Amino acid sequence: MLKILLDCFGGDRSPQANIEGALAALKQFGDLHLILTGDESAIKNCLQGASYDAGRLEIVHAPEVIGCDEQPINAIRLKKESSMMKAVRMLRDDDSISAMVSIGSTGALVAAALTRIGRVKGVIRPAFCPILPTMDGGKVGICDSGANVEVTPEMLRQFGIMSSLYMQHVYGVEKPRIALLNVGKEAEKGDEIHQKAYNLLSETSEINFVGNMESRNLLSGSYDVVVADGFSGNVLVKTTEGTALELLKKLKKDIYSRTVYKLGALLMKRMFMEEKEFMNYQNYGGSVLLGTGKTVVKGHGSSKATAVAKCIEQAYLMERSALSAKIEETILKYEHYEY
Question: What's the pTM value of the predicted model, to 2 decimals?
């Protein structure tokens, strides 16, 4: 059995969405054992009437919740009985537990992962890597997307290594095409950090580096991973998601503006529904935190059950592929580390 912890509180739809996602994951993977942390009575109320294998599901009572508006360091110090911190401690202390999923406070989760769980040997800083769909039906990862606002060239190279291994071993992408987010495609573009990172990535034989990428090409299908500092990567992801949502809203508004458009939309209803599902981030899980000592997956705060189940699937596949060991093996081939 592969044991995974699920923090059941902290999200907009918690705990209902978390628990529904957990039950879906249990049905999907017969060798999965889930440990739910949070208010026991609330969790049991959500489980009433549900059909599941009780032998593969357990509850650990944690009465407190860390809110997204709380200072991360204060929250992890003062709320030791929160659903998130209980899960973090169990992940750290119990060798039989492989991974953790949370849709709670991003800041608290990152701080807890760094201070309580630690890093894979050789990794300078862990990095978030969410997945977005591309126009050719593929996927593209963005690494980093918020964990590290300030970076060094060596960190950007490590992001490229970790995310390349992730796309290869979890999503089955052969020789993932790795790009560096920059203000232009030419090698000399960007500041000193990005110019040095370009050279390091070019010299890294373990990855398939294809050069710089401008943000407008993110969803083109020409790249499998985009390497970025956490600030730029976070802006890139949220701008892309926001633009897609606003375009869908405008399309809906325009369709209802004229009768002839409504008639045309009826004929194209199935296509519109498929496009909506294609751009729905709920179908792509969460941001995995690459480089932590044990697997951590952070879902969006507004995650529904589908997204929670996908987050659990990501954690499951990362563990089944022994991703952390592969990251350590590759990172340690390089002698220069910055801590």
Answer: 0.91
